[in-house]
Amino acid sequence: NNSNAGECTTICSAVSCCFSGSTLSASTSSTRQGSVVNPINTEICPKAYDPSIASSYEEGSEVEDNGVMYRCNGDPWAFYCTQSNFRPNGSNDLWVNAWSE
User: Fold this and answer.
1) What is the helix (H) or strand (E) element at residue 22, kind and residue range?
2) pLDDT tens across 47-96, in order?
3) What angle do CA 22, 25, 31 make, to 5 degrees?
């Protein structure tokens, strides 16, 4: 019986699955017949990236964009997380210095 059924239609990693307000990760349990991978609801996904509050993002801030979770990198790049033109997965190629998947 999987209590998480329906929350996410795809088994995926914690950094790339933000569906229905939940992040799913996989756990492995061993049996005599081998290993079984079971999705487990581990945490609530961060809020979507919001350019109107970009100035509040700091090192370690987590945001979601198009189902992918991003974390603001440390210095010297954390400052750029506060700049909306460095939004995760944005048109400015330098965003990868500020945010990590």
Assistant:
1) strand 22-31
2) 999 999 999 999 999 999 988 999 999 999 999 999 999 999 988 889 99
3) 135
